Amino acid sequence: MTVQPSRSRRVAAAVLGVALALTGGSAVPTAAAAAPPASDWLHVSGNRIVDAAGSPVWLTGTNWFGFNATERVFHGLWSANITQITRQMAQRGINLVRVPISTQLLLEWKAGTFVAPNVNTYANPELTGLNSLQIFEYWLELCERFGIKVLLDVHSAEADNSGHVHPVWWKGSITPEHFYQAWEWAAARWRNDDTIVAFDLKNEPHGTPNDPVRAKWDGSTDVDNWKHTAETAAKRILAIHPEVLILVEGNEVYPREGETWNSPNTDPDRSPNYYYNWWGGNLRGVQDHPINLGAHQDQLVYSPHDYGPLVFNQPWFDKPFDKTTLTDDVWRPNWFYLHENGTAPLLIGEWGGRLGQDARQDKWMTALRDLIAENQLHQTFWVLNPNSGDTGGLLLDDWTTWDEQKYALLKPALWQYQGKFVGLDHQVPLGGDGSTTGISLGQRYGDGGEPGDTTAPTAPGQPTAGTITANSVALSWTAATDNVGVTGYEVLRNGTVVGTVSATGYTATGLTANTAYTFSVRARDAAGNVSTASAGRTVTTGSGGGGGSQGCTATFKTVGSWSGGFQMEVAVANTGTTAGSGWTVNWTYPSGTAVVSLWNGVLGTPAVTVRNAAHNGALAAGASTSFGFTGSGPAATPGSLTCVSS
Question: Domain containing 605: what range?
């Protein structure tokens, strides 16, 4: 049978002025309310996603698979009720659901041919007699009712429960042209339905140079070039449906500096010729070959995936790690730099896993959750389904009970405002009419809710340099202020963002010896407003010896204090890889604090400068020594501290 195109489910314009109720049922006077946008389409501004009025939004949700598989319908409907599951997601703060499908299914829908879906109509009487497309569009009606938005994801070429394992977007009878045509059909079908706000073009393109087919990222028009394919698909979609967000995932490997896609993959596990990452998680190629959508660039979102050691034991899990090392070693070089530099928004399309089975897994998941929450990165957690073998789901095996431990971990990464979850629909509260847990976007921004926060934080204080080595500088600064609250700081080195932290301190690493760097800091608030940059601080790194690196640290310890004075011990360590012949420690004290007497060192100027004594200047790599002094005044913390090895 032929299925008619879906209708627009937007509320009529005349209804938009009607006051919406917050919790408690009290109406908000319409005279004081700003008119919300007439639709919920989204676009991009810098590294933020905003609505038609320019207000920032935060897409936070989960995945629900099954339409991509042989069943061609959501998994779980063989026992659980589709309305109950959808309502529960909305009530618990899921404002976006990523729905995996297949190119094959889209082509079947386009042709009007349908495989019988696996649905228990006793549990789902409302789905009786519906084919898979009708079930999907019935579910879109539910999403509209409960204030949920949808992200459609081509998960595989064929309708196959393991189709995501295939590395590229064509397979068997499904050609690259079929891939484009399937997306064009979807664009035409739902171009007037702003329940579906985004298309994720292809799940996890991957493959290594050893594989028979693989997804690469370069400037060519080769059939296996994912960058060219994504750009082509996006342009063909946007020519039909210019309002939809386009998500582009990464691939798996990218050539290291000086290498090409023709370089040998000498180590099939982790070749030195290529940077490896998760399937879909390597977006290094954007630096050299960014996606160019021309006039529709403001619809582009990049979408990496990231997982923990229970999915695959990546090399970075084999050494001690934390949020800082994961950011520096994995997330920033592969994709986080796109957010930090303001290139484009990020939506982490898949992350998640089991809890309580591996301490490293729990540590990774908490660290990524914190990165997401601190930076308001968009995300869809993997997964709702309990039948995901290597991750488990938010639902337990009965498809009704929620895994409360896992949900508690996810909850801080869901959009909340004044104790309510925030939806992406301007009229419908998240959870539906009368919801006690959620509000609408209109209620959040001006339609009976608080006006949008457009005030940027003040500029942070000029950074102060602490310990300086040949390849690192420790920085600190005074905090910025904000009308709502500062959520983090961006650290810039010579004008480029190199780090994002929540504290007022950062250690820049990987620097070159005897080189001047200028550091400044910007503050960011929860609404995404960014301050002007602080005054810059220029710091010159220490000297590095030939054939190795040299550096030192100075650690101060108060060992005694009395009225009007104190005693300090300072440990000096050679942190380089070669022996040093001398060291110099320099710092400043506030007015009223001064060094009175000193031992095991030579006191000099300017400020407070201590050089090694004749007997303790030569330090082998990793060795340490100390000096001490008494001072007058309060035992103040040293300022502008440097330690240089020679």
Answer: 552-645
